[in-house]
Amino acid sequence: MDPGAYFVAPLTIRKVSKPQEQAADDKGKGVAYSAPSSALKTKRQLLKKPPFGNIFQALLTKPELLFEVAKHLEIQDLVSLYAISRDFHGLVNYYFSSFVLGYCKFHAPSASEIYKSKTFANLAISDPVGRVDPQNPRGVRQVPGFRWLRMVLYRERMVDALLKGMAEEGHHLPEGIAQTLQLLWILMGIPSTLKRIGFMNNTSYWKNQDLFSAMMFFIKFDMMLTDPIDGFSARALRMTLLGQKSLTPLACLVSNPWCRTQIGAMQLSIWWRQTRHLYDQEYPQLGIPASEIGRGHLEYWGARERTPLMQVDELVIRECVGRNLDLRQDLETMMIWGYLTDK
Questions:
Q1: If 0-12 CB within 10 Å is exposed, 13-18 middle and 19+ buried, where does residue 318 land?
Q2: DSSP element (H, E) containing 14
Q3: Residue 251 to residues 69, 155, 191, 255, 320: CA-CA distances in angstroms?
Q4: Of 69, 72, 37, 318, which Cα lies nearest the Cα of 193?
Q5: Residues 119, 120, 126, CA angle at the centre, nearest 5°?
Q6: Is the Cβ–Cβ distance between 175 and 167 less than 8 Å?
Q7: What global pTM score does this model have?
Q8: What's the rounded Cα separation, in Å, for the pair 292 and 303?
């Protein structure tokens, strides 16, 4: 039996066109055809508009509300929206500096107060609207760009991973130490000993509490490395990790167990302070080019001169002595903090 016999459809609307002969045959069967597409143009245009309007277009009329909503977007989604929406692009350009700083303060509160846009001038851009620089009336002011924002968010994420990894290992650290780790990150990226000392002497950045927190971090990190069960029992590993250009290798080692490979640690050690022998000066070692071997512990990473670079832990101790901070009596407190007390 024909399955179509169960369905009674005296009139069927089709939106496709057929030849005139087929249309004549179907006319007697109760089949009707719709009007041409040109006749439905007005109806289709009406269907494209939502009955209650476009919420994004409505938000564009309220920039302060739109920016509050945009703060909850991920950085990649924010950049994509900035690239594809002309209206959103224009609004962000008009309030570019305040929007980027507000977004940074919302997602990275500890880092937003440290990474000044003037310090990282290579990541700044000219004001999209062309506002004049107050200090230089003939030039356009520089504002932090999306590259600066990505850098700050990345460092904030790595510092959080480092602190969580150490807490999972049982080595807790006080609140506010994330800001101290951000300062250590900046210090590790300075290629000159004199510039590092000048940065340490800046009391607007390095306060006495930051020096205390940095010393506690070094002690806790040493305790984690020398743990009799899960530790690495290698003092040279601490020196290698603190001798890098950033905290990324240290954070990866602490937060991700898959990063704890001997080959990765040896590669870092080779770049940092490996002595090249006479017979292998032209050959790479474990993927490290011969020209990069042993350059990590030198000023300007060995590009200009061969003077040893003072390490960050040495600089912190030197600054504590210069400020007459006698932290020897607090070493035991630093060790037991988080085990017997949280103060």
A1: middle
A2: strand 12-14
A3: 31, 10, 21, 6, 25
A4: 318
A5: 110
A6: no
A7: 0.77
A8: 10
Q: 221 near 129, Cβ under 8 Å?
A: no
Do the Cβ atoms of 217 and 173 come closer than 8 Å?
Answer: yes
Take residue 317 and report the two structure tokens written for it. Answer: 């101790």
- Which residues lie across from 132 on neighbouring strands? 140
List beta partners, residue 279. Answer: none
* DSSP-derived 3-state class of residue 114: coil
Q: Which amino acid is at 310?
A: M
Longest distance between any two alpha carbons in the chain, whole Å: 105
The first and second tokens of residue 284, run together, are: 């790479």
For 161-173, the DSSP string reads HHHHHHHHTT---
- Pairwise CA distance, residues 44 & 74, whole Å: 35
CB 211 within 8 A of CB 319: yes
Could you tell me the mean pLDDT of each successive run of 10 residues in the chain, 343 residues long? 39 41 46 40 41 73 89 94 92 92 90 80 88 85 92 94 90 90 94 94 93 94 81 73 90 74 75 62 74 81 82 94 88 82 54
